[in-house]
Design goal:
By secondary structure, the protein is an alpha/beta fold. It is 34% helix and 19% strand.
Length: 217
């Protein structure tokens, strides 16, 4: 059993109806991004918990959200500070995750991190950006691996690692090919007046500072 082809524009177009119907029924997906493969669902409480159970992830560890543009993040009630706006202008779409305040009443609290914010990224993966835009709401994201294992490089490994969920039809795997050994997204906490680097990743602190100056961490 292999994943659904999801590399070319034509393959994405062909896959969208099936994937959207699956998500609409509360299903889970594994998918390529600009960094590593992700596991996710719609940003609904029971579906997020289903992803956590599938991954064997400890409670309280937050997920991030993939959005198709800044407007989608703001439609969820997430607020952009001056720093968050400057960083988003410079690096979105791309491998920068911003932790933003807000979202109460619209997004499940299980998404909220220890700093009280919700992590969000406008993905630069063309296929996933199209999928999220067509869905009309964010998709949750956590790396597609079992605890203690490195992120899966391709769909074949995900199908193997999560075989019971694939066979049961609860997990659809989108095959975007084997991804390069790229680091995860850089994460910046923008819930306070002064932004703080939480995780070094695909973008360095130097790159953030060159682009956003005093508004960078």
């Amino acid at each position: 059993m292999t994943g659904i082809p999801f590399r070319t524009d034509e393959e994405v177009t062909a896959a969208l109806p099936r994937v959207l119907a699956h998500l609409g029924q509360g299903g889970l997906i594994a998918y390529p991004t600009e960094t590593v493969y992700g596991l996710g669902s719609r940003a609904r409480g029971p579906e997020v918990l289903a992803v956590a159970r599938l991954k064997g992830r400890r409670p309280g560890k937050p997920f991030l959200l993939l959005v198709a543009d800044r407007d989608m993040a703001e439609a969820q009630g997430l607020a952009f500070s001056e720093s968050a706006s400057a960083l988003a202008r410079a690096f979105w779409p791309g491998p920068l995750t911003l932790v933003l305040p807000g979202g109460s009443g619209r997004l499940p609290d299980v998404l909220r991190g220890p700093e009280g914010g919700i992590a969000v990224r406008w993905t630069s993966h063309r296929g996933m950006a199209r999928l999220v835009r067509a869905l009309g709401e964010p998709v949750t994201s956590t790396s597609a691996n079992l605890p203690g294992s490195p992120p899966a490089p391709g769909a074949e490994a995900i199908v193997r690692d999560f075989a019971p969920a694939v066979e049961a039809g609860t997990l659809l795997v989108l095959d975007g090919g084997v991804l390069g050994n790229s680091p995860p997204s850089t994460v910046v906490d923008c819930t306070q007046p002064v932004p703080r680097l939480i995780r070094d990743g695909a973008l360095t602190l130097g790159e953030l500072r060159r682009a956003a100056g005093r508004l960078a961490p």
